[in-house]
Structure formats: structure tokens, C-alpha cells
């Protein structure tokens, strides 16, 4: 396809998205337009759900394989299988560059899951372009060709980058329509869930725990060194640290099926796990601490873990789980621990949390007595 043909393809894609009557029609038009423009056999558009740590497929368009449906109910993949969307790409545009598409082939030496997926589905080559809205990774555009067709090249990657920008402009309208709904449950800086979403999830999780015995775990994280970054480098760099840690938390949370990751406010974050064992949650939290220590800003993270899978006593409400995780995090921060402190495994944490609860209860009783 020559320059004129590609220009017509870009215009056609933009017009098709503008004519769509619903968000589903819009993403289908985007995938179809990109597939035709790149002479591909198959195209997909996926969104990065930060709070779940997943890439969720919104549409599969073109020559689908068994198991691939046009609009999947929940076809999603943990972002730690595709870390470039949270690490490499973020650093490219956070450092002043722009997101850029890249090519992968079924026969190649690039490590990762995409080559395996191409071979498994009888496709020979793909081009992957990040979709960026408001300076933040939103998801990706994926276009593939079947085995036996010519491989994509660097020119195709350049064109895919342009197409992804056009797709982003079209999706922005849908995003604005969804913004009011998301704001109620989303932290605007990091894109993670907020405290309201955490409270709702914990209440649901503890109901499930009482009915079925499902293990419920809470990890509370306090980002070290944020004030120092703000004071010495400015709040823009502090925000960048919060965003980078949020991405790392999302990536690690994806290692726990069904986990919710959130920013509670300021430099405090958390992870809610329902189902995985306490050992699994602790292992992922250790990975989180190690990755946070490698960030270019800040001084790592202090993490406290509280899980019904450990000997922490009866958990009647989310308030007690928070007290235990907070007490564990407080101890980790005071000790400048490079690993998480776990309530129940460190018995002093349970005593500390219960003493704080009793003190608070006593203060309430004394206050009432003065009424």
C-alpha cells in the first residue's frame, strides 16, 4: 500500500470510529480499520485494567482461531506476561519520548509470550502498538498476519504507531463518557482503584470468607522517600514516582488471580487478594518490595500483610484486617525492612493492632461519658 493508500486508510479508520453508535462498535471499527490498513489477517484491541493487573481483550476482528470470539466476556492476560506495557513503554514516553510500535515474529529470538502465541495460533508475524490517552498507557493495538504471509517490518511499525494515535483519538470520546463512572472508584493519578473500591471489595471478600472459608489477604504499602523527592525534585517527579510504583504494583498484583490493587491516598497503596494462599500473597509482596527498591526514584516501599490464612484471630470486619496490615506496615517501616512484615507470623504485630483498637475504644467510651 503506497502513501496515498495509507492516507486513505487513516481517514477511513477515523471516519468509521466517528460513525460508531456505541463503544463496542467503535472498538470494532478501530480494529477492522487497522487490520485493513496494515493488510493483516487478524486484529485485536486490549485495555490495561490497572486495578486487576490485566490486559483485557475488547475485540477480536478478522480471521479468528478456535476460542477467539469477536467480543470476549473476559479474555484477559496478566500484564507480567507482557511487561513492556508497564515498564519499557512507560519509560520511553515518561522520559520525553513517544510510544512506538514494534514487530514480533513466530520465528525469532525475542523472548516473551507473543512469539509463543503466534506459533500456537498459526500466525507468522504481528505488530503491537501502544494506545496512549492523556499521557498514560491505555492499552494496545495488535495486528497479525497468518503464516506464509510477508513479515511486518519497521515501516509497518511506524504506520501502526500512527494508526494507534488515530484509534486513541476516537476512543477518547468513549473515555469521556465513562469518566464520571470511573472517577467514583478510581485514583485519577495512577489509574488504580481508590479507597471506596477497596472498602467495597473487602466487604464482599469477607462475606465470601464467612460463607466458603476463602482466604482474604490485605497488603498495605507505604512508599518511602516520596516527601524527599517532592522537596528536592518537585511534585512532578513525585507524581512520576507514584505512577511508576502504581505500575509495579499492578504488574505484581497480576500474579494473584482476582487481586485488586489500589492507591489509598498520598503515599499509601494496597492490594486485596481473595483466594490465593497467604504464602502466595507474601511471595508476591516480596517481589513487589524487590521491584520497588529498583525504581530510579524513592527509597523502596514498606509493606505489611494481614491474611485470614495466618493465625490472626477472628476477622469480623475489614477494619480489623486494615489495623493488622497497618501495624505490620508500621513495623516494616520502622525497621526499614527490605521484606514485608506479616501479621500472625510476627506475633508482636497482632498485639500492637489489638492494643491500638482497645485504646481507640477506650477513648470513645471516655468521650461518651463526658456527654
Strand content: 15-25%
Q: What about the largest sheet?
A: 6 strands, antiparallel
Helix content estimate: 40-55%
Strand order of the largest sheet: 3-2-1-6-5-4
Low-confidence stretches: 362-371
What do you see in this structure?
The protein has 371 residues and is α+β, with helices and mostly antiparallel strands. 48% of the residues lie in helices and 20% in strands. It has 11 helices and 11 strands. Helix 1 (3-19) runs parallel beside helix 5, helix 7 (226-233) runs antiparallel to helix 8 and helix 10 crosses helix 11. The model is unreliable at 362-371 (pLDDT under 50).
Quick recap of the structure?
It contains 11 helices and 11 strands. The chain has 371 residues and is α+β, with helices and mostly antiparallel strands.
Amino acid at each position: 500500500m503506497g502513501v496515498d493508500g495509507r492516507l486513505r486508510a487513516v481517514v477511513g479508520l477515523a471516519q468509521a470510529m466517528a460513525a460508531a453508535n456505541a463503544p463496542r462498535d467503535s472498538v470494532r471499527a478501530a480494529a477492522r480499520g487497522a487490520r485493513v490498513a496494515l493488510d493483516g489477517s487478524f486484529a485485536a484491541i486490549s485495555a490495561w485494567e490497572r486495578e486487576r493487573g490485566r490486559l483485557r481483550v475488547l475485540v477480536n476482528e478478522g480471521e479468528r482461531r478456535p476460542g477467539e470470539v469477536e467480543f470476549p466476556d473476559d479474555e484477559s492476560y496478566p500484564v507480567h506476561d507482557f511487561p513492556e506495557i508497564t515498564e519499557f513503554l512507560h519509560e520511553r514516553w515518561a522520559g520525553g519520548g513517544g510510544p512506538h510500535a514494534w514487530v514480533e515474529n513466530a520465528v525469532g529470538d525475542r523472548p516473551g509470550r507473543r512469539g509463543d502465541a503466534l506459533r500456537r495460533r498459526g500466525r507468522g508475524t504481528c505488530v503491537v502498538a501502544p494506545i496512549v490517552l492523556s499521557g498514560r498507557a491505555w492499552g494496545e493495538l495488535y495486528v497479525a498476519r497468518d503464516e506464509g504471509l510477508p513479515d511486518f517490518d519497521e515501516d509497518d511499525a511506524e504506520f501502526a504507531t500512527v494508526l494507534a494515535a488515530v484509534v486513541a483519538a476516537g476512543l477518547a470520546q468513549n473515555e469521556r463518557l465513562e469518566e464520571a463512572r470511573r472517577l467514583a472508584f478510581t485514583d485519577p493519578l495512577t489509574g488504580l482503584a481508590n479507597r471506596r473500591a477497596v472498602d467495597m471489595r473487602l466487604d464482599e471478600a469477607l462475606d465470601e470468607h464467612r460463607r466458603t472459608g476463602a482466604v482474604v489477604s490485605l497488603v498495605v504499602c507505604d512508599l518511602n522517600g516520596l516527601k524527599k523527592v517532592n522537596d528536592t525534585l518537585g511534585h512532578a517527579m513525585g507524581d512520576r514516582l507514584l505512577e511508576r510504583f502504581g505500575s509495579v504494583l499492578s504488574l505484581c498484583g497480576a500474579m494473584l488471580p482476582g487481586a485488586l490493587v489500589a492507591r489509598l491516598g498520598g503515599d499509601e497503596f494496597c492490594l486485596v487478594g481473595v483466594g490465593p494462599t497467604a504464602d502466595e500473597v507474601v511471595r508476591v509482596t516480596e517481589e513487589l518490595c524487590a521491584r520497588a527498591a529498583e525504581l530510579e526514584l524513592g527509597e523502596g516501599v514498606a509493606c505489611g500483610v494481614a491474611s485470614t490464612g495466618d493465625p490472626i484471630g477472628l476477622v469480623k470486619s475489614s477494619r480489623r484486617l486494615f489495623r493488622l496490615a497497618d501495624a505490620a506496615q508500621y513495623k516494616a517501616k520502622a525497621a526499614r525492612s527490605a521484606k514485608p512484615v506479616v501479621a500472625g507470623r510476627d506475633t508482636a504485630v497482632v498485639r500492637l493492632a489489638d492494643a491500638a483498637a482497645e485504646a481507640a475504644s477506650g477513648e470513645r467510651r471516655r468521650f461518651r461519658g463526658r456527654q
